[in-house]
Write a structure and sequence with these properties.
The protein is α/β, with parallel strands linked by helices and 613 residues long. It contains 20 helices and 21 strands. Helix 17 runs parallel beside helix 20.
């Protein structure tokens, strides 16, 4: 038996040799899952619309300035001003496209980094590979894991560097896309009365853009103060993203949710609130962060192409590939094998399936035992420590990293309220949060309940798209998504979608977005060079790709069905069919490059002049 690099695999099976009993851990994991699972799955949450629409308001910008509706024409309209939209704009600009309008709901560029400004916010991926276009902008991040404000400022710098502010419109939401067959262009309508015509449309509205609230009975009756972490209310708390929440000194605060956001804001809430109650259904796995400032000598030594080399090194490692040196050397690269249970690749295919699964599981148990041992080493109260231990496989929930979260529960003013046996918070009254039959009186409730992951306006139908013949995208996809490479669909010419659908993803999703934006820009550049009026996959090419997705998609249903409920497995109701390219992102990016270089454009360029190159 050997690994992909030829080295031998040795996986002990005897509990005495392992130091733990795999069968006992499996049983414990299943019992803990069953304590938390709810029959309504994802329906336990509600959207921030209607009577809860105020949770979606922009607390960072003044009221939208009055302006006349736009009635003009651009070559490319980009929907969304986060990193996806910025990368699309930057790569299109590099490809020679001058007329680009980014349309963004927020008051500036940044996307998730514009909206999320809660105390303690940092990226959990190394900043040197997460923050895009560093060499193009001429910037090296100040920290290995950058704070949110540094990332937000970098987004603005990208906008300036590539001239994307020139035609951008902010505080504006796209409300409809309609294809005009005669003019061969899209009509883009917005909530500001705009009627913009665009030859091409690129949608990059993000996978973490729709906040959600728990459907807790009585949520609307609470008479204290409430907000969602993605719209942090510093007017109420005081302070800033660095903490110092001085206005909470005499407040009793409830935080509902213990995912990645809570891991970062809890240390600040615990330090500054009079009392803090953290309501937890499922604990996160919390590993060492070890953040540190950037070494000026290292930064000065970087040579051209350094960021791409570093990103490729990381992507290769976390998908099971082999490199001469681990340039990142952190919690992600050290757990590469375990990540196959979220983002499969072909990196371990040299191992027979049964041996591969056994090796995955044993390595997983060992890592989670380390995580649980860390809880015992840090948290002084044994009962609290037991509640903070995660009993599930490593990639059932997004791993988190912190050097202050667990320590916060040693503070006398911080109380952990475990809600597993009641499957979450039971109710909210006019002055309290009720869990386990106990009412916890509070002055403020903060919802750290996350987002509708993987849902954009287009995929949810909230942004209506009418293609050729007036057919909606929802109608065309009634039996499931149909795309070529995840970017474009037959019947919807000149429309490109960025995101994780029917392509390949990674924990460093910005790297994936850059590859996608580069691909779209190259397709558009070739369409312009060959005077193609439409970019649209043939029905045959689309069908072939859907078949490829079905053939290669990894079967993660059994793994996710055993997971504790969370957004990775649709709250314990995993989907039986994956829409991801099963060979992983490295293979997918190579496939795109080969497609572009070897005649693939003929599958999408309609009415084009012959390629004479």
């Amino acid at each position: 038996m050997s690994r992909p690099d030829g080295s031998p695999v040795s996986t002990p099976a005897d509990p005495q040799e392992l130091g733990f009993d795999p069968a006992a851990l499996r049983a414990r994991y299943r019992a803990e899952r069953d304590r938390r699972i709810r029959p309504e799955g994802g329906r336990q949450y509600q959207r921030v619309t209607g009577r809860f629409g105020y949770y979606d308001e922009d607390p960072y910008a003044e009221a939208a300035p009055l302006r006349e509706p736009l009635h003009d024409r651009v070559e490319v309209a980009v929907v969304g001003g986060g990193f996806g939209g910025l990368l699309a704009g930057a790569r299109l600009r590099q490809a020679g496209v001058e007329s680009i309008r980014v349309i963004e709901k927020g008051g500036d560029f940044g996307g998730t980094w514009y909206w999320n400004r809660y105390p303690g916010i940092h990226c959990d991926i190394e900043s040197y590979i997460y923050m895009p276009l560093l060499e193009e902008v001429g910037y090296v991040p100040r920290w290995k894991y950058a704070p949110g404000e540094e990332i937000r400022r970098h987004a603005e710098a990208i906008g300036r560097t590539f001239g994307l502010y020139r035609d951008a419109v902010f505080r504006t939401q796209v409300t409809g896309l309609r294809w005009d067959e005669d003019a061969c262009e899209w009509h883009v309508s917005t909530d500001r009365g705009d009627r913009i015509r665009a030859r091409y449309v690129v949608t990059a509205s993000g996978t973490l853009s729709e906040a959600k609230l728990p459907g807790i009975p009585g949520i609307e009756t609470f008479e204290g103060h409430t907000f969602h972490t993605s719209r942090w209310d510093y007017a109420y708390t005081g302070g800033d993203a660095g903490g110092h929440l001085h206005r909470l000194a005499d407040k009793r605060v409830a935080l509902i949710g213990t995912g990645a956001t809570a891991i970062q804001c809890v240390p600040h809430l615990g330090a500054d609130a009079g009392e803090l109650y953290v309501f937890q259904r499922t604990p996160s796995s919390v590993d060492v962060r070890g953040n540190r400032p950037t070494d000026p000598g290292w930064a000065a030594s970087l040579s051209p192409g350094w960021q791409q080399r570093r990103r490729d090194n990381f992507l290769t490692l976390v998908t099971g590939g082999q490199v001469d040196e681990d340039l990142i050397d952190d919690g992600w690269t050290s757990t590469a094998r375990l990540q196959q249970k979220l983002i499969p690749s072909d990196g371990y295919r040299a191992l027979p399936p049964k041996e591969r699964e056994r090796a995955y599981e044993i390595a997983d148990f060992q890592k989670m035992n380390e995580i649980r041992a860390r809880v015992d080493a840090v948290v002084t109260d044994p009962e609290t420590a037991e509640m903070l231990k995660p009993w599930y496989r490593y990639m059932c929930k997004r791993p988190t990293f912190s050097d202050g979260y667990l320590e916060t529960f040693n503070r006398p003013n911080v109380t952990l309220v475990d809600t597993a046996d009641s499957h979450g918070v039971e109710s909210i009254t006019e002055n309290a949060v009720v869990a386990g039959g106990t009412a916890y009186e509070v002055d403020c409730i903060i919802f750290g309940t996350g987002f509708e992951v993987g849902v954009s306006g287009i995929t949810s139908g909230r942004l209506p798209v009418h293609g050729a013949g007036g057919v909606t995208l929802a109608e065309a996809w009634k039996d499931g998504p149909r795309t070529l490479h995840g970017f474009y669909s037959h019947g919807f010419p000149n429309l490109f979608q960025l995101g994780p659908l029917q392509n390949a993803s990674s924990v460093n999703f910005v790297h994936v977005l850059d590859e996608q934006a580069t691909h779209v820009a190259e397709v558009v550049a070739e369409a312009r060079r060959r005077r193609a009026r439409r970019v649209e996959p043939t029905a045959e090419a689309e069908a072939a790709w859907v078949a490829t997705i079905r053939e290669k998609a990894a079967d993660l249903y059994a793994f996710q069905a055993e997971c504790t409920p969370g957004y990775y497995n649709n709250e314990g109701m995993p989907r039986k069919r994956s829409e991801s390219y099963g060979d992983g992102p490295v293979a997918f990016h190579a496939l795109l490059r080969d497609w572009r270089a070897n005649g693939g454009m003929s599958e999408v360029l309609v009415d084009a002049e012959p390629d004479r190159a």
